[in-house]
Design goal:
Layout lengths: L7 E6 L7 H14 L3 E8 L4 H17 L4 E3 L4 H8 L3 E8 L11 H7 L1 E5 L22 H12 L3 E3 L5 H10 L4 E2 L17 H9 L4 E3 L3 H4 L5 H16 L4 E3 L7 H10 L23 H10 L4 H19 L2
Parallel strand pairs: 1-2, 2-4, 3-4, 4-5, 5-6, 6-7, 8-9
Helix pairs in contact: 9-11
């Protein structure tokens, strides 16, 4: 069934913390072979600056634009459908954090023109925008953060609160200026990890017009065993709570887990040990697990239209609502 559906993964980290450029390119090939039609790549994390993001955008744009037989840059939602029809992998770009905006909301439309279609407000640690998911107390959204959210909504860029502190996320929601997303966030009710989110916050996300993508990292699933079953448990919880039309994939698959473990150890302030980031058994689901995930949903009584939505149609609908 996977090959019949539009499959869209909204989170693939391709920074040096997750492997080398050729490792990421190899995983893209695996994704395409496994039936993925669209995937969004991380161009920078907090606290990387403007030029770090721009250099990575240039490198990936050179790959995408230089191989039009295989790839197409996502600018508008329907680029994904056109790419699929042409046998191309549609590639989107996003930021995991907002430090590349250099506390200047005026840079948002420039990054949008470069291809950035989503940005996380804060990555784990407090920044000029607000609080991160791994820092207490969360000071909430700053005045600059409010201006940034407003600029992102005006520029048609998805506002993503994954990795962002709960109070800061709620402040962004309270602005009411547009939809808020969690591109890769699992249910705290299923696994009580601080990077996962509570039910009421997920419901507020949906009420804003946003949706939630489910993450395939073992640390946020509840463990490295039976990972497809664990991934399904989070999908099933969100579908029951939010409605299946508000759930998608943001798998966060890394290309080189050993490189990631080394980065987690080097930057323990960003990825604290007491939240389990230095665990030796850290793992991710694989692109090749998608058929097993579909089988699990079918076994649970999910209809083909519902599964198609979760695999990709829901992200397509969200992108049509936001991007221009």
């Amino acid at each position: 069934m996977v090959q019949k559906c539009l499959v869209w993964d909204q989170l693939f980290p391709v920074t040096e913390a997750c492997g080398r450029f050729h490792d990421h390119a190899a995983l893209l090939a695996r994704m395409a072979a496994a039936g993925v039609n669209a995937v969004s790549l991380t161009m920078a994390y907090d606290p990387e600056d403007t030029m770090a993001a721009v250099r990575r955008i240039v490198a990936w744009r050179n790959l995408i634009d230089g191989d039009p037989a295989r790839f197409r840059l996502i600018r508008q939602a329907d680029d994904v459908l056109e790419a699929r029809a042409a046998g191309q992998l549609a590639i989107g770009l996003h930021l995991q954090g907002s430090t590349p905006f250099a506390t200047d909301p005026g840079l948002v439309p420039l990054f949008y023109d470069l291809g950035i279609r989503a940005a996380i407000l804060v990555y784990n640690k407090t920044s000029a925008v607000g609080g991160g998911a791994h820092e207490a107390p969360d000071p909430g959204l700053s005045e600059y953060g409010r201006a940034l959210v407003a600029s992102m909504h005006r520029s048609a860029m998805m506002v993503d609160c994954s990795h962002t502190g709960e109070r800061t996320a709620r402040d962004a929601l309270a602005l009411g200026s547009g939809p808020i997303f969690y591109t890769h966030a699992n249910a705290r009710a299923v696994d009580d990890h601080p990077r996962n989110i509570p039910d009421d916050l997920a419901q507020e996300i949906v009420a804003s017009g946003g949706m939630v993508g489910v993450c395939g990292v073992s640390l946020f699933l509840g463990g490295p065993e039976r990972m497809v079953e664990r991934l399904f448990a989070h999908i099933d919880h969100w579908c029951g709570l939010l409605g299946a039309e508000h759930v998608g994939l943001g798998l966060d698959i890394v290309s080189d887990m050993e490189a990631t473990k080394a980065a987690l150890a080097r930057e323990a302030a960003k990825w604290p040990a007491d939240a389990g980031y230095q665990a030796g058994d850290l793992a991710c689901v694989d692109p090749e697990d998608l058929p097993a995930l579909v089988d699990r949903m079918l076994a649970a009584g999910y209809g083909e239209d519902t599964i198609s939505g979760i695999l990709g149609q829901n992200w397509l609908a969200a992108a049509r609502r936001v991007w221009r």
